[in-house]
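Q: May I have one protein plus its fold?
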Amino acid sequence: MSAVGEAAAAPGTHVGRPVGLNRWRLALRFAIREMRGGLKGFYIFLACIALGVGAIGAVNSVSAMMNDGIEREGRAILGGDLRFELEQRPASAEERAYLDGLGDVTEVVELRSMVRLADGSDQSLAEVKAVDGAYPLYGTLDLDSDRPLGDHLAERNGRFGAVAAEELYERLGLKPGAVVRLGSIELELRGVLEREPDVLSGGFNFAPRLMISSEALQASGLVQPGSLVEYAYKVRLRAGGDADRIAEIAGERFPEAGWSVRSYERAAPSLQRNIERFSQFLTLVGLTALIVGGVGIANAVNAYLDSKRMVIATFKSLGAGGSFVVGVYLLQVMVLAAIGIAIGLVLAAVAPFGTARFLESVIPVAAEATVYPGALALAALFGLLTALAFALLPLGRTRDVAATALFRETGTSGGYRMRWGYLAAGLGLALVVAALALTIASDRRVALIFLAATAAAFLILRVVAWGIQALARRAPHVASTPLRLAIGNIHRPGALTSSIVLSLGLGLTLLVTIAIIDYDLRHEIGTSIAARAPNFFFVDIQGSEVDAFENEVAQLAPDGDLDAVPMLRGRITKLNGEDVATMEVPPEGAWVLRGDRGVTYSATVPENSTLTAGEWWPEDYSGEPLVSFSDEEGRALGLKVGDTVSVNVLGREVTTRIANFRAVEWESLSINFVMVFSPNTFAGAPHAWLATLSLPDGSATDEKAILNGITNAFPAVTTVRVKDALDAVNGLIAQLALAIRAAAAVALVASVLVLSGALAAGTRGRIHDAVVLKTLGATRMTLIRAYTTEYMLLGAATAVFAIAAGALSAWFVVAQIMQLPYRFDWTVALTTLVISLVLTVGFGLAGTWRVLGQKAAPVLREL
């Protein structure tokens, strides 16, 4: 006996009159009784919620796991309780004495240089790291043998030792025991460096690691005045030392030092920022999948209510009010939503355990997987709010459907008016979801744009669906029966048009956007930038060697174009007299103030630059120090001509006035700087030179011969082959693109689920139509052709929208945000069209076989 039947038969039961708590108890009783029939019709509902909740929970759980690992191992990652970093100069005697007074100190010196085979036949760029006997203060250095690091690096038989990453051995075709040259000395490679605890504190490495002793670096001759060398002093504080307070005191005691001070609580800020940004993006994609799934939730609730029309009619015939009916089915929906959320939370909870080992191989941080209640609670809240927001709309339409209409077989999805209260509640919940997403976002501007674009896409897709129906309604009469039926199915009451367009539109649009952005980045880096970029960068050319260097290049590459400029490193400390550490800076300009920047001086406007405001100084200028600032970065920082900028260079703070702004072609990869100073600013300051070499297209000059020749003639000069650097960037982009595509695939899977749910929800109406048409003489083949044509038309229309919307979104990101040339990839368009047609026609025909196989008599008896 059904729940309603039991209620009707039970003495003293009054369906329509319970009040307050009793009413909700009775509604819950009926809801549970009705759910005894199982979850039939709600599998799509559950899958949509589980997918979105699982994606959001998994992303935030894995992000929490990585951040916990960084915080837990903060001292090992940083290499100490505090890290004092200086550019191009070691600590002075007074500064080093102060650091020694804080506790145990290790000095680590890092630079890039060329490692050469002993016979000079080959070489490789390496990240050189020189350490002393106290290294490491925290953490463990893993080598391929049990011997201590000091034994590997010590001087024996007139040669210093070294350990290197496996990648360096592979690049040069060597094994432990081989002899290589670094600068002016020979090194014996005595071991393989498997893991260094503080690798993340220094930022991203472009080349394999070579670790040597401080004495070996001193003997190599690589450190010259103006060389691009980074000195890091890592301090293990005495018991009771407050790292943050000491960092503050150090800045006050040595205001001109220009050092960057970090505590173990900010061991790897760049990595943590990237984790936050990436997890925010993936969370928003997961939220998009959940919102797309919301359409499936609405469809599933609508179809379920349609199947319960007789029960609802009986409820109302027994005197139940509309709010009581809504309460019964709202409770059912919430119970089912809880089941879907629970499934998603299980998937999210196991995500850290499944990804921990993989992430450890990519990022050298011990990932201790556990369950993260905060991440799971956030995902559950998103799932609950989304389910409730989308379920209220069909439930609200059901409230005012009369019992007589239900008994006449009119479905719940017809054109019944929506009560404003339900509509307002649904919109209110949607705003709560948006506010929650903005609250947790690390970059609210990006989150706001993402959410606004999703909302706009929903509205536009509704308009697109309406437009398709309007065109079908006004289409001229056609002789083909299948085509006529297909056009009629597109615009008839209860048509699947809106559901199909909504379900596939968002997922396909996101895929198109990501695919075109990926294509443009790869094309720009691998083709356009590679074609415009110089072939080589040369770093750390000493001023006394510039002429000899130019002569050597002229002999090795007579057809090459060499461009050389002086270069120093400097950190912006103040803008208009205000300490940058206390300023609120927009994200697009913050990178300029983060760490040291390369700076130069010039008497004339540099190539690849165009003045946009102000005037350039005369060639013989000798007045107050002036600076030319990059236009885009300067505007982002709120600067204007006449403002002052203070820069710490080599421990000396120099205050300059902005004379002009200039547009810089960063994408050319030529020599470009954010700041170019007047020559008198750094008069007498020690510095090295930076040079680029460009070879004409089709040049017969052998790049390897240039590399060998320069490296052997000038061992202290670091040579970077641009193609190798671009390959490394392309590899990084490929890894990011893979993760982003996987996230976008989640949204597409949600779209597919919603599509299948929409088609399933329309099965009952299709059965009636098919039976009537077969009774009137339509053949099975005619109906198959009609349905195939309908699905092809809807799939093609949706694909056209997705291609247009995705192309527009990609153009905005590439051209407006990234400031790169935009190119449309027709392969993406054709692939999107094929995917859309395969999904719509495939799922549509899969459901059609069931429709065409129905016997006519049972259906006709219900009409």
About this structure: Confidence is low (pLDDT under 50) at residues 1-18, 410-415.
